[in-house]
Every structure is written in structure tokens, then in C-alpha cells.
Amino acid sequence: MKTLLPYARFAGVFMLTLLLAACARSPVLLDSTYEALTPQVENRTVPFFAQTEYQCGPATLAMVLNYQGVEVDVDQLIPQVFLPGRDGSVQPEMLATVRRHQQLAYPIRGTMDALLNHLANGDPVVVMQNLSLPIYPMWHYAVAIGFDLPDETLILRSGERERHTLSFSRFDATWARSDRWGFIVADPGTLPEGITARNALEAISAYEEIHGPKEALSSWQALIARYPSNPLSQFALGNALYADGQPEKAMAAFDAATQYDAQMGAAWLNLGILRLQQNKPDEARDALMQAASIEGSWQERAQQLLDEY
Amino acid sequence: MKTLRAYLSTLLIAALVITSLPVAAAPAAPQSMDLVSTQSVLAGDRAGADREKINEILARADVQDQLLKQGVDLDEVDARVAALSDAEAQQMAQQLDQLPAGAGGGVIGALFAVFIILLITDILGLTDVYPFTR
């Protein structure tokens, strides 16, 4: 053990040097962010729920859910999201608990620019921070509600503080330790500005898993309205429309998916199956031939259907 | 719980083998007209559908185990597992111990050295532990 001591000391000095070098760094925002945003934004209508002990997860969820009009208090949320053995709440369950209350949880892109843009749109953002250092972590959830651009400060509802302001650089240092993790809560059928197509797809798909495709239909439609040429969104919309008893519209959506991505075998297969169901064997054959010619898990089924009909 | 898991996986494997037998024996059986789901496309075809299914069910059983061990109420465990998407269930099953748990709990009973270090990093603007540094 003794021989390790000089190394430990060296490591300590090295780390401090690193820290000192790092402290000069401040998050650089894009010029476009400075130009596009109002200097001061604060969504004062976000309700505040103070955390008790280690309950920042439930408290944070209470704030964003009540903001969405879901009436739920911290005590109801604790058994749904808090892990007694870990003295905290983990990220997957934060998202899952939002869905239990018939709301969608959209992850945001992890940059300061994206965060500020969401806040400028009036959307409160749940953020995960490590308030301490990686070697001695203090993980924490808070709700970002606004910023002051000239002052370079962020405004949060955090812990026991209803209005916690901290500099962009300090916040970004704590946020970066969670890989800048954050999400926005939204009603079904709405898609907050600035959410990427991929993040929206994952969020709506997860919602669909527990509430079913009919309940997810309006959200898929919102996604299509925002990203009409995204093949996966068209595919997802097709499935939801089919579940909702609208096969004609579903076929149109699968057709659109194959137009935007001619290599999407699953869309060709679904299109083929629907055309078979609609008694259009010739058109079905075209689609199934496409599916069978593209390598993937759909190939076998497409071939079998071709053999039978 | 471990034995339960072993039983469950044996049962699952047996069930899947049995249910897949008639299909293998009678290739001319009429095809199901089920559409390919959005979730299976998003998950990609990293594994065969059956294996994927087993993994999902096992992952959920695992998460159930772990949540119970972490002190979650018995009445709540099922609902919490059900609320997870397949991807989240797998993530929880594989790395619950490593996942950061947001707590943000007040005073930390830390060593004096840690206290000093965090005090310094707080003053430097790298951390946000002690409110009195600002």
C-alpha cells in the first residue's frame, strides 16, 4: 500500500491541474442561437414541488406532469419511480413513469443550443445532472424553465429551490456528466419543436408498446406532419392506421415508406399483405417480390406468401 | 429467484420449440396475415424473432427480481415492469447497477478531503454541491 502513495499524490496533482485547466472552458453557443433567441425567457407557470430526501425524481416528474395538466403529487409518484435500494430514480423508469400517466417523454438532443431552443419555445425540460464529480457522483434531476442570455444563466426548478439560477458553464459542467441527458413531456398528438425524428420515433414507439397503436395514432400523425419524408415514420403510421381499421390509408402510408426508402423490406412486406387482404393479388405480388428481393428478416415470409398465392 | 428463472427459460424454450414444430412439419400451412410491427423494425433484426422474444421475457423477469431486491413494493413491481419498453427493460436488466440514480439528496456525509475538493470545484464553477459557495 505504501508504495502506491506517491502515485496517488501524483494523480491528485494531475487531476487538480486538469480541473484548473477545465474551469476556463465555457459552453460555446452557436451564433445562430444568440441571434434567434429572446434574451430572457422564463416559464413561470411550471408548478414547483420541493423534493424531500432523495426524491428529486418523483418531484421533477410531479412538476412536468402537473404542468401538462396531469394531477398527481409526489407521494403518488414515489412508489412508481423511486428505487429504495438505490436511494434514487433511474432514467428508463423516469421515461416509463411519464408514459403511465398517458404522456409522451421525448428525449432531447444533448446540446446547450438545443436546450435553450426548447426553453425558448416554452417547453420545460427535465435534465439529469451530476452535481458533484465523477469519482463522487451526486446524481440529480431538475426542471429547466428558462434562461438569461446576456447574463449567461440558466433557471431551474431544482431540489428544494423553486428558482435556482446558475451560470451556463457551471450547469453545462454538471449536465455533461450525464451525457447531457434530458427530455420533454408532451400530450399524445403533439410533438414539441426541435425533437429529432429518431428520438420521436423511439418515444412514440415506446408509448405504443404500453397503450396500443390506436392511442399512438395521433402522435404518429404529428410526427408525419413534421417529417413527411421519413420512411420509418410512414411505416409506423401505416401500422397504427391498420390497427385503427383504416386499411386504405395504411396502404398509402406503407406505399409512401417504400417511396422514401425503396430498400425497406418490412414496408414492402406489409404493403403486400394488405394488398392480399384487399383482394389485389397482382399488386400484392409486385410488393412481395420487392420484399423477397431485399435481404432481411422479411424475406422468408414474403417468399412463402409468393409461393402460396 | 435464480431457480425460478431457470425454470422459466426451460419452459419458454420448450414452449417455443413445440409451437414451432407444426410449422416446420407442415410448410404448406396458411401464412399468418400479421403485419410486421413498428417495434420489431426499430429494434432491428439483431437476433431471430424467437430468441429476441425469449430475451425480452427473461429481461422482464430479471427486472422484476431486481426491483424487488431494491425494495420496491410488491404491488407496484408488475406495473413498473409493464411500463418499460422492451429496449428499456433490456437496459434495466443488463445494467441496473451501473445506471445513475438521480437522488440529489441534501447533505452528504463525506470525508473531509472530499468536502474540501468539492468546495474547491464548487468555487471554480465545476460542480453545484454547496449552496453557500455562491
UniProtKB/TrEMBL annotation, chain B:
One of the Pfam families matching this protein, by short name: DUF6627
Stored InterPro entries: PA2779-like, UCP029543
Keyword Lipid metabolism: no
Keywords, comma-separated and alphabetical: Membrane, Signal, Transmembrane, Transmembrane helix
Signal peptide: 1-25
Transmembrane segment boundaries: 106-126
Keyword Membrane tagged: yes
Domain of life: Bacteria
Protein name: PA2779 family protein
